[in-house]
């Protein structure tokens, strides 16, 4: 009986913590505007009048973007460090980091770990084919074969 009472107290603590968290969302202004989140959710078929839920999605989206940006920065630093090792004779004067699409796509493809659960972001990034990349891109389909 004491065990049952402890589990009810734990549930009550969880409920009060959740209520406190949801109440704190009303005072928080996320980086992603509520209107943008509402638009994206409505486009996917989800409508909710509760601002707290909209802000919860915004906070989760903000965390996702921050993690991807951080991972991309690590890939960028590793790439530029590998390039610096190859060119030891010439020390680059400009120490700015240049983030490329390759850094972003590598960070989106990599496997992450969260509390012993493996997950993949699941986003595949393909670069668009540009006229400069392929000479036959801007040509008529009939003249490409020639």
Taking the sheet with the most strands, its summary is: 2 strands, antiparallel
Could you name the ranges where pLDDT drops below 50 across 5 or more consecutive residues? none
- For the termini, the CA-CA separation is 84 Å
> How many H/I helices?
5
- In spatial order, strands of the major sheet run 1-2
The tally of strands reads: 2
Assess the beta-strand content as a share of residues: 5-15%
Structural domain tally: 1
Helix content: 55-70%
Q: Overall mean pLDDT score?
A: 75
Order of helices and strands: HHHHEEH
- Radius of gyration computed on alpha carbons: 24 Å
Subcellular location: Nucleus
GO molecular function: promoter-specific chromatin binding; RNA polymerase II general transcription initiation factor activity
Protein name: TBP-ASSOCIATED FACTOR 10, SALT TOLERANCE DURING GERMINATION 1, TBP-associated factor II 15
GO cellular component, one term: SAGA complex
Topology at a glance:
Elements: H1 2-25, H2 34-43, H3 51-86, H4 101-109, E1 111-114, E2 117-120, H5 141-144
Antiparallel strand pairs: 1-2
Helix pairs in contact: 3-4
